[in-house]
Amino acid sequence: MAERIAKRVLLIGWDAADWKIINPLLESGQMPALQKLISRGVMGNIATLDPPLSPMLWTSISTGKTADKHGILGFVEPDPVTGKVRPSSVTSRKVKALWNILQQNGLRSHAVGWWPSHPAEPLDGVYVSNFFAKPNDAFDQPWPVAENSVHPGELAETLAECRVHPGEISFAHILPFVPDAHKVDQDKDKRLSGIATLLASGSTYHAVATWIMQNREWDFLAVYLNEIDLFSHTFMKFHPPQMAGMPDELFALYKDVLNGAYRFHDMMLERLMELAGDDTVIILTSDHGFHSENLRPKYLPTDPAAPAMEHAPYGVLCISGPGITPDERVYGATLLDIAPTVLTLFGLPVGKDMDGKALVQVLEKNVLPEFIESWENVSGNSGQHSSEVREDPWAAQQAMQQLVELGYVEALGEDDAESADKIRRESRFYLARVFISTNRLDEAIPVLEELHREVPDVIRFGLRLAFVYHQAGRTEDARKIIDELRAKQERENDLPPLDYLEGSLLFSEGRPLKALALLRRAEQGKSHMPGLHLLIGQIYTSTRNWADAERAFIRALSIDPDNARAHHGLAFAALRQDKIELAIDEALNAVGLKYQLPAAHYHLGEALYKYGDHEKAAQAFEVCVRMAPGNRRARMWLAKIYSEHLGENEKADAHIRFVKEFIRGTITVVSGLPRSGTSMMMQMLRAGGLDVISDEKREADESNPKGYFEDERVKKLHLDNSWLADAEGKVIKVVAPLLQFLPAGYNYRIIFMQREIGEVLKSQQKMLGKKDDKNYPTTLADAFSKQLEKAQAWMKAQPYVSFLEVNYRDVIADPLAKAEEIAAFTGENPDPLAMAEAVSGELYRNRKSNV
Asked: What distance in Å separates the CA atoms of residue 159 and residue 101, rounded to the nearest whole number?
């Protein structure tokens, strides 16, 4: 067993807590407890999972596993006995939670209010379910403790004294949230009673947690509070700045509620920290953030998960206490990392079947986590419900349905059956989204196909299927779904997502300008989509239109300031315009939000180098190659910096050796028969911004008035290829018969020009000064055809070759369309407009029709 770092761990969950609301409160001194926690440890963003639904997320936090593994697939599920709908139950969780694992290792664990946690698990410690605080009658009526909401059961009466009924919340308690509460007509406006309910619930679970800390021995305590999320769903629309259309009187009444909610939680945190003591590691996390400012949706659709549209992709994370690096930031954390981190703090191995990682970077000591195959294979009392109680509600529903069909059980009523069908479909949809978010497209597709077949009129199912087809490279299937959805489109609101999807398809096919037309239409219909402007920025980047790219990324960030990819896009666009300080700032913003972005670290390194900070540039490039070891350019930058600026030649040599031994450089090759349009293609690529190799020894003439773009060394390729290292990342012209002499050791992208053989021969004869010959040179045509066949067979046989066949006539007929296709193939982002402008129709003089 590894070294135990933490004496105790207190895990606090604040559902939907968001730094955008917290930071101004910290700056104004209104959350002193959280400020103290931050100063003693690390803080940062924590990335949520998809879909961002609380029961799924909090179960992932406590298990370190995605929802397809842990089994909680939404807010509700079928009751295994009746088949009717019930709230998601802890008995449906298929794996062990942290408290179960810790109990098996002799640690005293308790859990309060976790979601979902009913019925209470039979831990050796205290377990209070999320049903415990819910009142079932008025304040002056009996309030029995919900059955099975407390374990051990004999504590139910004691802990009942911790409960706070909403009826106990007075005007004095509400005034800090709504200073003008006396102006509210409570017969018409029920928001004050909503605040009372949330204050009572939060106070109840807080009181239970403090009772446990004062009356029970503990190594681990998990306490969950969902009040910030519920406050936000009701009152975020009143939070400053005032939303368009929000009546002044309502804004004035409720603008302080959200700040009050956070201050209320800070007061509870202060008491928990006091009771925990300085020898406890405290982890405070939320499962997601909550959109504020201009990201607040103006309306929510009718689908069951619509409230999740208000959730932001990053929550808050603070880890503080002994062994934790003080006053630092943590990067790259996800919800799946909490359970592995807690296990590591207790010196326990992480399950290899967990999907997260231990956040060892927050520790003062260098710690290497240990691993176990799976905690599910460890026997002994884990404090879980017995196997006969735990079951998959979806499998149970299918079994019940079979009994109905066999006539042994009465069928559900129409309403109940329809409700069960709806939640089954929703849960399947959520499962598909889990598969998508974990890059398991092959598992997501059949689920979405089934849903689309069952309910083809549900736009979101079809739209998600089309997106997954697109991600999987099944373009034709995606287009078919788009056409179907356009035919069924009933609302103008459905059009922008379809335009966005089709624009994305066109862009992936190398047709950025046609994609841009659709995206601009989507922008007119629904511009409040950060992903739309992000894609527009990427298209402008692909065409090297840096100024327009910058504007698009700024627009995306005006909608969603926490979009890491938009920050990175802006950094790249700024870098290419020599706006170095802006590039550095934006690249830092990008990696601060999403650390696992190797390209952002690369561009940060490039910007820092241009700024003159060679040491930090090297650090950025080193992070890049740790994440992407095959990034040749980053390694060559490191070799340059270490050798020329930092005097560390050994490090420089190590990177150069790595490149030579493990990384193939890429060379773009233009090939084909002489007079098939190879010079025109070289001209296009140079106009587009690519670096072409040409020694300019062969001068332009009547046959090629704009030059030949050749290099004499190519002619001796079969004798000497040592110079090819000069061509890495560049473009060279190699005639078809010489392709076979391109050596292994590089990756080649070959643009192979095709032209009707008769046109080629006539052009060659004219170039040689021969008179027109009315007899078709059959023998020569056959010889050239054989050369083409050999070249094509060679290209197909080489694993390090990718090639694109380009017809000369097609380029002349539609230069822009072909330029877009070629630009996409190169992977180097040449400008297709400039490429197209380089094509001259006058070049197409030797048509077959003239032969």
From this structure: 25
Alpha carbons 604 and 568: distance in angstroms, whole number: 9
Residues 6+ apart with CB under 8 A from 770: none
Give the Cα separation of 582 and 602 in Å (integer): 15
Could you give the CA distance from residue 518 to residue 527 in angstroms, rounded to a whole number? 13
Residue 752: enclosing H or E segment and its boundaries?
Answer: strand 746-754
Burial degree of 193 (CB within 10 A; 0-12, 13-18, 19+): middle
Name residue 225's amino acid. L
Residue 319: helix, strand or coil by DSSP?
Answer: strand
Helix, strand, coil fractions of the chain, as percent rounded to 5:
55, 10, 35
* Look-up of token digits 């890059």: 439
Angle at 177 between CA 173 and CA 181, to 5 degrees: 80
C-alpha–C-alpha distance, residues 283 and 407, integer Å? 53
Percent pLDDT > 90 in the chain is 60
Tokens of 731: 């473009």
- Helix, strand, or coil here: 280? strand
Q: What's the rounded Cα separation, in Å, for the pair 166 and 200?
A: 5
Question: What is the tens place of the pLDDT at every residue in 303-352?
Answer: 777 888 899 999 999 999 999 999 899 988 999 999 999 999 999 999 99
Kindly list the distances between the CA atom of residue 417 and the CA atoms of 10, 203, 421, 553, in Å, as whole numbers in the listed order. Answer: 43, 38, 6, 47
Query: How far is the CA of 574 from the CAs of 15, 149, 603, 724, in angstroms?
Result: 37, 57, 10, 32
587 three-state secondary structure = helix
Q: Which residues are within 8 A (CB) of 136 and not within 5 positions of it... i.e. 6 or more apart? A: 143, 144, 146
Which residues touch 762 (CB under 8 Å, ≥6 apart)?
A: 772, 846, 850, 851
Q: Contact at 8 Å (CB) between 297 and 24?
A: no
pLDDT in tens, 747-794: 899 999 998 887 877 766 665 555 555 555 666 677 778 888 888 888
Q: DSSP per residue over 673-714, as a string?
A: STTSSHHHHHHHHHHHT--B-----S---SSSTT-----GGG
Cβ-proximal residues to 535 (8 Å cutoff; 6+ apart), any chain: 500, 503, 504, 507, 515, 519
pLDDT at 847: 45
Q: Please count the other Cβ atoms lying within 10 Å of the Cβ belonging to residue 819.
A: 30
* SS3 category, 848: helix
Structure token pair of residue 62: 């406590």
> 172: how many CB neighbours lie within 10 A of its CB?
8
One-letter amino acid identity for 694?
A: S
Q: Is 226 exposed, middle or buried (0-12, 13-18, 19+ CB in 10 A)?
A: buried
> Is the model more confident about 725 or about 285?
285
User: Which residues have a Cβ under 8 Å from the Cβ of 449 and sit 6 or more positions away?
Assistant: 465
Per-residue 3-state assignment (H helix, E strand, C coil) for 614-625: HHHHHHHHHHHH
Residue-wise burial string across 767-806, b where 16 or more C-beta atoms lie within 10 A, e elsewhere:
eeeeeeeeeebeeeeeebeeebeebbebbeebeebebeeb
pLDDT (tens digit per residue) in 27-73: 999 999 999 999 999 999 999 999 999 999 999 999 999 999 999 99
The residues facing 804 across adjacent strands are 751
**pLDDT tens-digit series, residues 140-156:** 788 999 999 999 999 99
Evaluate the omega torsion of the peptide bond into residue 51 and state whether it is cis, within 30 degrees of 0: yes
- Give the pLDDT band of residue 207 (cuts 50, 70, 90): very high
**Mean pLDDT rounded to a whole number for the chain:** 89
Residue 331 confidence (pLDDT): 86
The three-state DSSP-derived secondary structure of 35-76 is HHHHHCEEEEEEECCCCCCHHHHHHHHHHCCCHHHHCCCCCE
